[in-house]
User: Which sequence fits this backbone?
């Protein structure tokens, strides 16, 4: 029986962070990627700090037969590469061929749908596929699942997210998502929606902030496949520079839509580093606010507060990896909360859950959610 964990993409910010968190928790693993120098440098640094816990493994994704041999001893593969559209198909093929469970930290709607579409193959191969063990998917998924339990009759779900600073890769993905239409779930059907065409004001933790419609998020897809929600609206607090571009007409909006000066916008949103510094991570918090509403007018609202999004992603990924290594998960595609359950809230350091009963802490107490059209 295979028992090893492989983290692919440790030459990138997110993969390196997850590998460091694993080593810090004495979780032995293989640190893998396609860049020889950067993978070796990372693994050597980890080995000096945590001898025997980290083994380097370097391989590309072009040769399918060679790729499969890299997973012969691997029970769970974590894909942390930011280029999911290119890496996930090849890695999933290899996992299907070798009986290796696959999970990734993808939070992009289209890529997540591609993993979901391989459910039947995973069931036949006897493996588990999980997309979205990132904060953006896993924490919101935990919120949705808990609200559904608190109010089983609920059919409308509103999610609003305030997250910590982005990495450069995440900033690039967000900018790309904001340039094209996305989808929201309305009455059980996914319908085309434009980014930031409406907004909500939410008191996340220190006064009201405006969150904008985020049709690139995955809550609608999750609800469509799992229920009970039939209408889902997702909102996210955006960097002011991005907000201005989305709301402004004229030449700058035209330039944004046609791809001009996007690299400069990435640097403005995320800075010049690959990702937040350790100091930024230690000081940051990320929030998911949720409201479930039933046809009879019953409402439940709650707030999930977590450490920096990247730290939550790392800890949630490792938590779910340990569960997969236990071998007690039915094969096929699974959402993070289906596997992690209450542990995604109760067993990750620094995470707090609060059901909002005080009207002063709610967005619009005892009234339907007020949506303000953006100009």
Assistant:
């Amino acid at each position: 029986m295979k028992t090893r964990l492989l983290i692919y993409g440790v030459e990138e910010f997110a993969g390196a962070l997850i590998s460091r968190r694993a080593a810090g928790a004495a979780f032995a693993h293989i640190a893998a990627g396609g860049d020889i120098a950067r993978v070796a440098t990372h693994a050597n640094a980890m080995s000096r700090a945590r001898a025997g816990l980290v083994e380097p493994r370097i391989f590309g994704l072009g040769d399918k037969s060679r790729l499969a041999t890299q997973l012969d001893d691997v029970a769970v593969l974590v894909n942390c590469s930011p280029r999911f559209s290119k890496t996930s198909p090849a890695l999933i093929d290899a996992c299907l061929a070798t009986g290796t469970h696959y999970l990734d930290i993808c939070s992009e709607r289209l890529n997540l749908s591609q993993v979901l579409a391989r459910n039947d193959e995973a069931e036949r191969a006897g493996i588990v596929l999980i997309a979205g063990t990132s904060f953006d998917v896993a924490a919101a998924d935990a919120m949705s699942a808990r609200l559904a339990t608190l109010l089983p009759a609920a059919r409308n779900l509103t999610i609003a997210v305030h997250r910590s600073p982005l990495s450069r890769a995440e900033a690039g993905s967000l900018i790309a998502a904001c340039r094209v239409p996305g989808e929201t779930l309305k009455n059980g059907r996914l319908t085309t929606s434009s980014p930031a065409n409406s907004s909500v004001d939410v008191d996340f933790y220190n006064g009201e902030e405006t969150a904008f419609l985020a049709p690139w998020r995955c809550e609608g897809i999750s609800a469509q496949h799992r229920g009970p929600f039939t209408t889902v609206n997702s909102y996210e607090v955006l960097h002011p520079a991005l907000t201005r571009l989305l709301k402004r007409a004229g030449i700058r909006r035209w330039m944004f839509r046609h791809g001009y000066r996007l690299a400069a916008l990435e640097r403005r949103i995320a800075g010049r580093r690959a990702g937040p510094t350790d100091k930024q991570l230690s000081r940051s918090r990320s929030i998911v606010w949720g409201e479930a509403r039933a046809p009879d007018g019953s409402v439940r609202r709650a707030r999930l507060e977590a450490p920096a999004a990247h730290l939550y992603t790392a800890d949630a990924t490792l938590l779910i990896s340990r569960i997969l290594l236990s071998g007690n998960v039915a094969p096929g595609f699974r959402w993070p909360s289906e596997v992690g359950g209450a542990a995604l809230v109760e067993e990750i350091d620094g995470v707090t859950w609060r059901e909002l009963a005080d009207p002063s802490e709610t967005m619009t107490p005892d009234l339907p959610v007020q949506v303000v059209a953006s100009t």
